[in-house]
Write a structure and sequence with these properties.
Elements lengths: L1 H4 L7 E8 L2 E5 L2 H9 L1 H4 L8 H6 L3 E2 L7 E4 L2 E4 L3 H9 L2 H21 L4 E2 L8
Parallel strand pairs: 3-6
Antiparallel strand pairs: 1-2, 4-5
Length: about 130
């Protein structure tokens, strides 16, 4: 929520948590929790939180750097692999990249559900 309300990332706290879409979401304040709970689809990251640039280039998933590599565009939150990747993504035609990303996301989302997707993970990923 802080991406929208304070134009920055703020680490959430367990006392301000919400279960949505099979995940636990943490927020910095009760106000942020209440805003999200009222309309989670409006505030959740696009593309399931995977890298917007990667999805704009193909049907692939890549982890993100949520602290610094994020963009709010037309009221939607997009995350990227790194700040450098975010800058590259922003130099492109964002509306076109987002449209291509949405097309690719339809395929990738089904692959995730079916367990057939390959992930690009960071070296320090907790999922390695």
């Amino acid at each position: 929520m802080a991406y929208f309300t304070e134009s920055r990332a703020i680490e959430g706290k367990p006392e301000f948590s919400n279960e949505w879409a099979g995940d636990t979401w943490l927020f910095a304040s009760q106000e942020h929790l209440d805003l999200f709970a009222a309309d989670p689809e409006a505030y959740a990251p696009q593309f399931g939180g995977w890298c917007a640039y990667a999805l704009s280039k193909g049907q692939c998933t890549a982890e993100v750097e949520p602290d610094n590599a994020w963009t709010v565009h037309d009221g939607a939150l997009f995350l990227n692999w790194s700040e450098r990747v975010k800058e590259t993504w922003q130099r492109n035609n964002l509306d076109h990249s987002i449209a291509v990303g949405h097309d690719n996301w339809e395929v990738v989302e089904m692959e995730i559900t079916d367990g057939e997707v390959e992930y690009s993970r960071k070296l320090d990923s907790p999922w390695n």
